[in-house]
Write a structure and sequence with these properties.
The complex is a heterodimer of chains A (355) and B (246). With 355 residues, chain A is an alpha/beta fold. Chain A has helices at residues 19-26, 47-60, 72-81, 97-131, 140-148, 153-177, 183-222, 225-231, 236-274, 279-289, 292-318, 324-354; strands spanning 2-4, 7-14, 36-45, 66-68. Chain A is built from 12 helices and 4 strands, in the order E-E-H-E-H-E-H-H-H-H-H-H-H-H-H-H. Chain A is elongated. Chain B is globular, with a radius of gyration of 18 Å. The model of chain B has no long low-confidence stretch (mean pLDDT 89). Classes of the chains: A alpha/beta (355), B alpha/beta (246).
């Protein structure tokens, strides 16, 4: 390469591999007055080579730079790959603070309204579909029941047992100091029935089934399956969401009951082995301390948790934007939101029933 | 011209128990446009994926650039892949990246070109597929045909020696389709590209095909030039040119 009388003489091949080096060499010359590029000795050129020539021309700030002595092959490559005159797209300007704040509020309001509609829709059809089976897929509720309920049995049992063991073990030492061994039954029974059973089951269901619901619906939306259902005169809410709603309504109280029983059993193990209680004494004490209200409130609360999980997961699933990567995003959001609202609901519930 | 660029020998492919490709042997010659034809579902996509090791063939061997790739070491095979551009049947753009970044991936990973050069290359490729000014959009914001063209730009960005296109013109209007055909012909000349195309479009076949490969029921039933194919008396081939499409 040399630069004489405002003419740049290039030689060799202008291919991807050699361009980085050539570009460095070129930046040593002041090319402001360049008017001609001589390609006498250039045999081969690819799209990177043409981009390199264009870059040199662009750096002169003028577009009337001649390229001479090019072979027909090279000339055609230049014509095919020329990037001169192609403009960079305009990056949209940042909006003002007030615009953004307004947009945020509007979006927030919009989601609220939309979410309310969806909730109403789901609740309405869940009740109506109990009596009218039209527009529901056959066997869907059972199918969903297996996915949401049966398949979760193992993990919920295991975690409830561990939780019962931990709760009992942590308090056993304290109770023992005061000779209050028998109160381990009160502690475990009440905490499992009122709080731990419903709460932990809800969190596991939100993580397992909530995420599955959100990603399934979001994928259906992204791949136009929801639109396809619509065009087959099926209501996506009825066809896809209602069966899940029914299934979770049945499964959740059952799961919570099981979780509670297993948790209490976990406590029993510690009571018998560590606090020298008999199983009969432990169970008697537990049954005595529990009221019907505790049990009913626990189950009622678990129903609300279940509905919140389905509605929130469906909401995020249907609100997916973009393609496959949007699915991942809304799934994460739905799990976070489900768990958040489960805990908030739990707090509200405690205020109402136990304050 | 005599040494095949891709040699496929006794290639058999199965999904489970079902044999999709049965003992296929064909050669792909350099600097030619080879069109693979066959009824929908006959295994064209499967053939392409087996040739380039996206699926492991049940048996058989494949040579690319004269080298056996069937059980080549992964790093070595990557060097071969850098010389190949593939357009998938449904585009396969990376959803989380915008169009510009999608096309930039091979340039970023496999060259040391400075940013301003990369920028120019990408804009040229996008212009060549009639997609100027879509750089900042995401794939989800493009139509089906636009996605396919953006994916073609990505396949072309390294000026590959072999270009493989799975139904490039499906979903495109005839004018855009014709302009892509011209681009492909042009690139074949300029860069000595070898091109493998799966297509059903008779118009497109007339414009670009140097060589045809007909697949039927898992076998290659015909290979030859367009003129030879038109004279063929094989029922499947004959009916294709009568009906115009499968
Ligand atoms: N992942 C898979 N698992 C099982 N079978 C498959 C799979 N992918 C494809 N098949 C089967 O293999 C056969 C060939 O499929 P392939 O996608 O190769 O067809 P094609 O010729 O490309 O069709 P088209 O023109 O519609 O794209 C089909 O019968 C299909 O059912
Ligand atoms: Mg296919």
């Amino acid at each position: 390469m040399k630069y004489q009388n405002n003419i740049l003489y290039l030689s060799g091949n202008l291919l991807k591999g050699s361009i980085p080096g050539l570009l460095k060499q070129v930046s040593h010359f002041t090319l402001r007055d360049l008017h001609t590029i001589d390609l006498q000795d250039v045999a081969d050129i690819d799209s990177a080579g043409v981009a390199f020539l264009d870059e040199i021309i662009a750096r002169t700030g003028r577009e009337q730079v001649q390229i001479i002595n090019k072979s027909p092959q090279v000339a055609q490559s230049i014509e095919t790959f020329s990037s001169l005159g192609l403009k960079k797209p305009a990056v949209p300007a940042r909006q003002s603070f007030f615009y953004q704040a307004g947009q945020f509020l509007y979006d927030w309001w919009d989601s609220l309204v939309w979410g309310t509609y969806l909730t109403a829709d789901i609740l309405y059809w869940s009740v109506v579909c109990l009596f009218r089976r039209k527009g529901l897929r056959k066997g869907a509720v059972i199918n969903q029941g297996i996915l949401i309920g049966v398949d979760a049995l193992g993990i919920i049992s295991l975690l409830s047992l561990i939780l019962g063991l931990i709760l009992a073990l942590q308090s056993a030492a304290q109770l023992r100091q005061f000779g209050a061994n028998i109160f381990i039954a009160d502690l475990i029974a009440i905490s499992m029935v009122r709080e731990m059973g419903p709460m932990m089951t809800a969190i596991i269901v939100a993580g397992r089934s909530g995420s599955a619901i959100a990603s399934e619906i979001a994928t259906m939306k992204v791949t136009e399956e929801i639109d396809a259902l619509r065009m087959m005169a099926l209501d996506p809410v009825r066809y896809v969401i209602v069966p899940k709603f029914h299934a979770i309504t049945i499964c959740m109280p059952l799961l919570v009951t099981m979780s509670t029983l297993i948790g209490i059993f976990g406590g029993l193990i510690i009571a018998v082995t560590y606090l020298d209680l008999t199983p009969i004494a432990y169970l008697n004490q537990a049954l005595n301390i529990l009221t019907l209200k505790d049990v009913l409130v626990g189950l009622l609360k678990s129903l609300f948790f279940a509905w919140v999980i389905v509605i929130i997961s469906s909401y995020y699933g249907l609100r997916v934007k973009g393609g496959a990567e949007g699915v991942g995003k809304v799934t994460t959001l739905s799990v976070v939101a489900s768990i958040f609202w489960v805990i908030v609901l739990d707090a509200i519930n405690s205020l109402i029933f136990y304050f | 011209m005599d040494i095949p660029l891709i040699e496929i020998r006794n290639l058999t492919a199965r999904y489970g128990d079902e044999t999709i490709l049965d003992n296929i042997s064909v050669d792909i010659m350099p600097n030619r446009i080879t069109v693979i034809l066959g009824a929908s579902g006959c295994g064209k996509t499967t053939l392409i994926k087996n040739i380039f090791r996206l699926y492991q063939p049940s048996s058989g061997s494949v040579k690319i650039f004269g080298r056996e790739v069937t059980d080549m070491d992964e790093l070595e095979y990557e060097e071969i892949l850098k010389r190949i551009g593939m357009l998938f049947q449904n585009g396969a753009l990376i959803n989380s990246l915008n169009i510009f970044d999608n096309i930039a991936i091979p340039l970023e990973q496999h060259t040391r070109l400075p940013l301003e050069i990369r920028d120019r290359i990408i804009r040229v490729k996008l212009k060549q597929v009639n997609l100027a000014h879509t750089e900042l959009l995401t794939p989800a914001e493009l139509s089906g045909g636009m996605k396919k063209r953006a994916a073609l730009a990505r396949a072309l960005v390294l000026d590959p020696e072999i270009l493989v296109c799975d139904e490039p013109s499906a979903g495109l209007d005839p004018l855009t389709s014709a302009s892509l055909d011209n681009l492909i012909l042009n690139l074949k000349e300029l860069l000595n590209m070898t091109i493998i195309i799966v297509t059903h479009e008779l118009a497109s076949i007339h414009r670009i095909a140097d060589h045809l490969i007909f697949l039927d029921q898992g076998r290659v039933i015909f290979t030859g030039t367009l003129a030879e194919a038109k004279k063929s008396t094989l029922p499947a081939v004959e009916s294709f040119f009568q009906v115009g499409t499968f």
